[in-house]
Specification:
Elements (H helix, E strand, L loop, with lengths): L6 H26 L5 H24 L7 H29 L5 H28 L5
Helix pairs in contact: 1-2, 1-4, 2-3, 3-4
Length: about 140
Amino acid sequence: MKKVIDWVTIKFLIVGVINTLVGTSVMFVCYNVFHMGYWAASALNYIIGSIVSFFLNKYFTFKSGKKSVSEVVRFILNITVCYILAYGIAKPCVHHILGGYSLAVRDNAAMVAGMCLFVGLNYLGQRFLVFGQAE
């Protein structure tokens, strides 16, 4: 457990707060103000947040000095898989649990649940698969 929860974990969480402020603002404004759909709004969150996340996590959190295309490809694949899993699981579960509520309430709650699932999956993927911090 010590290899997973350490100073790197804390720095990842700091970067996560920054990404959350940026990405969540984009997602909820797109959904609630611009009336974009669930998938479009949540996808924009991760497109914009992932760009910020890549650079902050690469240089600040994981201190990766590699100049590698494969690292970028692994990052994109990690984000994509985590996004599809997290939001694909969250939406039907939350819609089932909150079946009596409006679509807007269910979708907003599903986006929050998807964010939570995404954080855990993304941390493990970035730390162990993308930036190679398994030691």
